[in-house]
UniProtKB/TrEMBL annotation:
This is Histidinol-phosphate aminotransferase. It comes from Cupriavidus numazuensis. PROSITE patterns: AA_TRANSFER_CLASS_2. The keyword Phosphoprotein does not apply. It catalyses: L-histidinol phosphate + 2-oxoglutarate = 3-(imidazol-4-yl)-2-oxopropyl phosphate + L-glutamate. Its EC number is 2.6.1.9. It is an enzyme of class 2 (transferase).
Length: 376
């Protein structure tokens, strides 16, 4: 054994399950694409990370600027002001709320707090990449349930739960496919899940839902001690760079997350900006309207070009750009050369598809024109 060490590189560090992880692939930053393809940053259109094309709300910018003056101090570990605002908005006490460094933090906290190595976590094929990461990094076993029409098959997911399952992840709307599970189906699912299994209902795109899709998941949290609803300020609220999200769950579950989170997991600029954004209903409404119009623009173009797409309830659309398994990568490079960044989803097992974030009208137009050229 000692000799192996001397030879160097023979003794692997860390557990097998960590070495087996495929790192998360993020959307390419504008600066990187500019460097790689010799393009001017100003002309690049980024539709790759489901960010709000309006950027950060003005109200949040002002709150963030004011908060900078206090950055010499640690943030409020308990997020009193933001939890107060969320508590008033959602109608739950503050001890039902957890703040996260992005909702990504919440997803990982749930996995770490609830699952031991060897126990299992259930999630759907073609759902958010972080569910696999959160499962693998704790040495848990993933039970990946086949998708139905690119979305969650909740009957199959309920049936997949075993005696060692402790966690189920559901994204609604789902990323990267944009599919939506109606309230009635979710409610039926929750009623079936055993009490020792926690359901994380990830509502990162909740604010984009149409009126007839809206449902009251916080009411379900009141009924189900094993339900945790996760939301984010990264998408419709336009604060992706600040990293802030939150969870709503009954106190017993919330208390567990609170025990293992970093004491200062959410910085003070993010907290201040989130309070402002939460109160900025005009911005939220404008974002949702812009998204609706942009979605119509993309869907019209895809139909005209004869491209299959998945009807989306989020701020992005998944589109099939060819019939061979190189299509996604090939068309992606052709788009990058024209300064348009979208997201290939080969790592999700969808090599013929691209996920396109809905942008400003001009950005959508530029993407559509570049796509037409790329497909020629
Ligand atoms: C974007 C996204 C998130 C979280 O993003 P954060 O920036 O970490 O809040 C969570 N779930 C899904 C499904 C997402 O698409």
């Amino acid at each position: 054994m000692a000799e192996q060490g001397k030879q160097g590189g023979k003794v692997p560090f860390g557990p097998d399950y960590v070495r087996a992880i495929s790192p998360y692939i993020a959307g390419k930053p504008i600066s990187e694409v500019a460097r790689e393809f010799g393009l001017d940053e100003a002309g690049i259109v980024k539709l790759a990370s489901n960010e709000n094309p309006l950027g950060m709300p003005e109200s949040a910018k002002q709150a963030a600027a004011a908060a900078i003056a206090e950055l010499g101090r640690y943030p409020d570990s308990n997020g009193f002001e933001l939890k107060g605002a969320l508590s008033a908005k959602l109608g739950v006490p503050q001890d039902w709320l957890t703040l996260g460094n992005g909702s990504n933090d919440i997803l990982e906290l749930a996995a770490h707090a609830l699952v031991t190595p060897g126990q299992s976590v259930v999630y759907a094929e073609y759902s958010f990449a972080v569910y696999a990461l959160a499962t693998q990094e704790i040495g848990a076993r993933a039970i990946v349930v086949k998708a139905r029409d690119y979305g969650h098959d909740l009957d199959a997911m309920a049936a997949a739960i075993t005696s060692d399952t402790r966690l189920v992840f559901i994204a609604n709307p789902n990323n990267p496919t944009g599919t939506f599970v109606p309230a009635a189906a979710l409610e039926a699912f929750l009623a079936k899940v055993p009490a020792q299994v926690v359901v994380v209902l990830d509502e990162a795109y909740n604010e984009y839902l149409d009126d007839d899709q809206q449902y009251d998941s916080v009411a379900w949290v009141r009924r189900y001690p094993n339900l945790l609803v996760s939301r984010t300020f990264s998408k419709a609220y336009g604060l992706a760079g600040l990293r802030i999200g939150y969870a709503v769950a009954q106190p017993e579950l919330t208390d567990l997350l609170n025990r293992i989170r970093q004491p200062f997991n959410v910085n003070s600029v993010a907290q201040a900006a989130a309070v402002a954004a939460l109160g900025d209903t005009a911005f939220l409404q404008r974002s949702a309207e812009l998204n609706r119009a942009g979605k119509a623009q993309l869907v019209e173009a895809f139909s005209r070009l004869g491209l299959e797409f998945v009807p989306s309830s989020g701020n992005f659309v998944l589109v099939r750009v060819g019939d061979d398994d190189d299509a996604g990568a090939r068309v992606n490079v052709a788009l990058l050369k024209q300064g348009v960044i979208v997201r290939p989803v080969g790592n999700y097992g969808m090599p013929r598809w691209l996920r396109v974030t809905i942008g400003l009208p001009d950005e959508n137009t530029a993407f559509i024109a570049a796509l037409e050229r790329a497909l020629k």
